[in-house]
Amino acid sequence: MHYNRVHLIYFSPTHTSAKIAYAIAEGLDAVTFSESDITHETPDKIENVEEELTIIAVPVYGGRVAETAIERLRMFRSNQAPVIPVVLYGNRDYEDALKELCDLVTELGFIPVMAGAFIGEHSFSRKDMPIAAGRPDDMDIQKAMTLGKDVLKKLSSLRSLEDITPLQVKGNFPYKIKGASTPQAPVTDEELCTQCEYCIEICPTDAISILDTGMFSNPERCIKCCACVKECPEGARTFDTPYTAMLHKNFSARKEPELFI
Ligand SMILES: Cc1cc2nc3c(=O)[nH]c(=O)nc-3n(C[C@H](O)[C@H](O)[C@H](O)COP(=O)(O)O)c2cc1C
């Protein structure tokens, strides 16, 4: 089987999922490729993906697929397009996230061909307490490209997608129960903030607005992705959580991507 068209779908507030999706696509050597970046908005109608080899990449939040990504992915359908489901996690663990993603895309009509769990710099990583800083790095990107090449080989050895044996990935069902979300959000140092509104532009859940008193992050809407912290041009945004020190202390030893073929 051969596919000329590749379609990327990703939710990626701090870009690590997107980077891996692109690297896999490079390995696939497609003639044409298109993308659905669902980081900032939910598709306004159901989108059908047909005849396209698809890569779906999303981050792990609390050992599960980020909830906003799940909501947005539910707007896609396929009639048996092959898919490469991928999760990015911050060097702690991805627990049930890859299984949850594989189950979801199967329910939506895709057929998982191969899957992967890659490591991305943790959203809560800071310069003084790094957690997987700089990941994915060159080695990760190479591994992602190789995954793309392996998918091509696997597909070319098949006469029909019906010949694919159901993909087994790490993870359990019932999935890990989600912990209660603490209503907390990054804060702004008003001395540094120039009110350029870039944080408002890049926030995936429209959680930030300007009030008379300065920038306001609505803790009920904020998903703590920390895109605004990492990308504020003035370094005016911080997210203070005890998880940063705990993760830095316990999960600094390098983990490697895991592939399911
Ligand atoms: C709310 C939240 C929960 C997270 N939970 C986990 C986790 O359970 N395990 C882990 O290793 N990383 C966890 N992370 C880190 C992200 O999975 C990681 O930074 C990922 O690379 C972000 O993807 P993105 O760059 O595409 O946004 C979490 C991040 C956030 C914001």
What do you see in this structure?
The chain is α/β, with parallel strands linked by helices. It folds into 2 domains: 5-175 and 255-260, Flavodoxin domain (Rossmann fold), CATH 3.40.50.360; 187-240, Alpha-Beta Plaits. Helices cover 26% and strands 23% of the residues. It has helices at residues 16-28, 67-73, 97-107, 138-156, 198-202, 227-231, 242-250, and strands at residues 5-10, 32-37, 47-49, 53-61, 64-65, 76-78, 82-89, 111-112, 115-119, 187-188, 208-211, 214-217, 237-238, 258-260. Strands 1, 2, 4, 5, 7, 8, 9 and 14 form an 8-stranded mixed sheet that branches. The longest helix has 19 residues, at 138-156. It is globular, with a radius of gyration of 19 Å. The two termini are 17 Å apart. The mean pLDDT is 96. The structure holds flavin mononucleotide. Flavin mononucleotide (FMN) is lined by residues 12-17, 59-63, 88-93, 120-123, 224-225.
Features:
261 residues; alpha/beta; Rossmann fold; Alpha-Beta Plaits; globular; binds flavin mononucleotide
Named once each, the bound ligands are:
flavin mononucleotide
CATH topology of the largest domain: Rossmann fold
Tally of individual helices: 7
E-strand count: 14
- Structural class of the secondary elements? alpha/beta
In round numbers, the mean pLDDT is: 96
GO molecular function: 4 iron, 4 sulfur cluster binding; FMN binding; metal ion binding
Protein name: 4Fe-4S binding domain-containing protein
Keywords: 4Fe-4S, Iron, Iron-sulfur, Metal-binding
Organism: Parabacteroides chinchillae
